[in-house]
Model the fold of this input.
Amino acid sequence: MGKLKMLKKNRLKESGQIVLIVLLASALVLTVGVSISKRTVTETRIDSDEELLKQAFNTAESGVEYYLAIGETSYDAGNGRADVTVLTIGAGDTLVSDGVVLTGKASLFWLVDHNVDDSVGSNRFNGTIVINSDDDFNGALKIDVFSYDSGLYSVQRYGYNMNGSDIVNGFTDVSNNETDDITVDRDGMLLVVTPINGNSNISIRGDSNFPIQGEAIVSIGKMEGGVNTKIKVENRYEVPVFMLESISSGGSVLSQ
Amino acid sequence: MFFFVGKSRKVLGACSIGSRCASSTFSWTSYTCTSYEDSHGIKVYKCITQRESETKTCFLFHSNPTFPIGCECLAELSYYGYSPCVFNVDKTECIEFDHAERESCCIPRSGICGSSAGGTYCSKPSSYLCDSGDVSWINSWSDPFIWRCSGSCGGDSTTCTATYTPPTVGTSGVCGSSDGGIFPGSPPSSNLCSVGTLSWTDDEGSDGDYNWNCLGTAGSCGGASGSTANCSALSDMAPSLDSLVIENNDSEEVVVESGSRNHICQSDFKESSNPDIVRFVVTGDDMQGVDDINTIQLRLRPDSGNTFTSSLISSSNGIAIFSIDVSLIEDNTYSIEVLINDNHNPPGNDGWIDTGRDIKVWDCNVVVSGVIYDGSAGGLFCPSFGSDRAVGANFTSLYFKENGVDAGVQNDVDSVNISYSSGSGQYFSWGDNKYYSSEFNSDLQVDENTMQIKLNNDCTQPMGSFEIESVVDSYVVNPSLVIDFLATVDQEAWFQSVDGGIFAGSTITNYVPITCDLYPGCSPGMSLRALVAAPTLNNTVDAYYSYPDNWYINSNLSSYLNFYEQYKALGVGENIEGDLEGDLDDLNNEEELFFINGDLTITDNNSVAVGEFLMVMASGDIYIDESVTNVEGILVGRNIVMSGTNNSQLVINGSLYALENISNSRSYIDKSDNNSSPAVLVNFRPDFVFHIPNEISQKITSWKWGN
Done:
């Protein structure tokens, strides 16, 4: 996961220079001859499209940044523009991880909504949740359910050895890729799923809808000349992983 | 004798005694007839001539024509000699022979056996052996007797025999089946003699028995007569034992214990007015009634050693009571025996009767010894204490309190071998029914609350109040007591996390004491309700890594990321250059996130309310001083160190992250506190997760590009 980079300002001058070069190249082609001119015109058109693509990508990125900064979904780049569409992530009764979750890495599924300022909201999930791994996942899932009830924050932890793997001592053994029903009855805030001893896609299914996990920002950069580029950015809420446990050390933890 | 074979003979008749007889031959002589008896007893006549100065026998006549063979008759001979004559064949007359001829004049006659022949004799017969002839013995010593009667005048000898019968002894008398019987009231009338002739000697039995003889038969040939059997039957029975009751000096019965025995240290004796006195109440029984019981005697007989024998005591109604001071008897286990005498003898008594009861006399002293074993490794339970001694327990003294007071049994302690034994003159007294407790030296470094005790391998006695009577066998030789202890040497410090896992990239070492499980409120696990994960995990044998489900995995789930650098680059929070030492509450309350470019030493407690947030990230190490007992917040550093000692627990409400290592050697000052409590407790604060400053709440950016 990388940081969001700050985009540079538009490059109008560069696009104008490109047009000029194209015209000159066209003239040269006409002077040389018909057979040559046809190929030259083609090469010139390819070079021109690449540059526009780059400009369109930059414009799309700028569109995302502009939305994140200002909240506007339309960005004018001079020789082009970016149209931003914002989609919510989640909000249904099934959530999936953003691709394969690596072993030891936490995948967060919010059970509470967030405010506009990204602070934690107040609509919390209550119900049952079932968690699935890949069918061929032979590891274990560490599951942490954070809740908030009557002013008290709490965490309930579960563990499952998936597909009969028997990976973690003491975890519940399941013979397939689905956990038991996990009951969240104390205003769930956050569900954290960490695969152990293997990588897997993670999906969770509840008996009611989950809150929004974040937003997907789709930005299409459109340049004059008809060159377009679309990018999609997902914006999810995360916490430092070491905050999910009591004691963590890159080396050793010793009492003596 | 002359034997002449007669050729012609002149017959001479017999002469009458005194008559003159003349010889036809010699006329010049006159003969006088005389007679004599010859050696055979035959009267022999002869004419004796007397010629002037000579007396000559001239011939013989036999009066009886019957005479033994070989008899010789002498005829008259000239005075120059004899002219023998012989008898005629049938020996009726004497025939003169010509003296010139030598002719036999004996009539051969065979020997004739006497009347003894054919008889039966015990020894050789001495008379009537031969009616004719001389006796000569051939066999006079065995059966048959054989002798010869010689013939005469050349007659044959005759062999005579008689039967020899050796001497025989007469048959001895044998008592009948009534012999030895008991016939109270009247003598036996049958089955008196199975052999022999009955001869009564006492058929009244007033002295307690009837007597008779069975006479043997006479012998033969001089053999001895058979012996006489003396027989008797009882007209009375010896008394028997009816019961034996043992009492203490207060005449209270002391009930017999298992194995039909008692011993002097029983409380029944000890609590009596004189614990040394044992009363033996012996009751006899007699078919003739208890009045037929005379005296009774008691003895105490050991298998080896001296026997104590009482004096005779006259019984009253068959009862005799023996009051014995056993302090005068040497320590031993005795069989109790009695001798009950009848008024009459016989029957007298049946000898020493074993009552089937034993009594042990001893001093009631029970010596004690034992060991303190080390149960620190866990998994040991009475009676299996293992073999490891609690070295390091600092064991220096032990005495056993009696009934909660200080007076008790002092012991000699071997501090090297962690053992002890009764001091000189120190012992338990069996039968006092006291309760004891163990008093160790005050600085004994074991968890006395979880100590286990074993008395002679018995595990039922409580540690703080045990009694010895139920575990010490008073009947063995030299009763003794072994009291062993199993103790957990004070545990080393340990830490625990609550509701939060413990992850390490390399090793987690944390020895959860086995004593924790024995204390209410102590949950035995490195972590409560969370996962413990590291490639190497070190814990007490059989102790949980995570309680209650023992979640653990030997795998690295930790992140090796320099979060200090990562988050500082965000340009958020407050930066502090250089080492910082002090109280976290002293930090800028407006800020929630601090970056310390150096080491952090926390010297005092702080607090962070729910809903608030505090995270301190140090580029260097974080130290928590031993004086600190409460830290709240999230601490991130290169190394985190908690050391020293304190009477109180260090509680950290939050989370710890170290890029390298977390060292948690902090301990309680009183090491025994480690037995029941972690010196450092880290309580996970889930509220911190939801109060992270927005600046560091990471937002995943997933880029996808396409037309």
Notes: Chain A touches chain B through 63 residues (CB under 8 Å). Confidence is low (pLDDT under 50) at residues 1-15, 29-42 of chain A.
